[in-house]
Amino acid sequence: MPEPLISVIICTHNRAAYLGAAIDSLLAQDFEPFEILVIDNASTDATRQVVEQRLGHARLRYLYEPVLGLSVARNRGAVAAQGRLLAYLDDDAEASVGWLSALNQAFAADAEVAIAGGKVTLLWPPNTLPPRWLSPALAGNLGAYDLGELPQLITQPGLTPRGLNYAIRQAFLQQIGGFDPQLGRVGKNLLSNEELHMTQQALKRGFKVLYLPEALVAHQVAPERLNPRWFLRRSWWQGISEAYRESLDGALTLGKVRSRSVCLLRGLYKAARYWRDLAQCFDNLVYAYGQLGYVLSSLRLLSTSSPGAAAPSESSVS
Question: How many CA atoms does the CB half-sphere of 75 hold within 13 Å?
Answer without folding.
Answer: 19
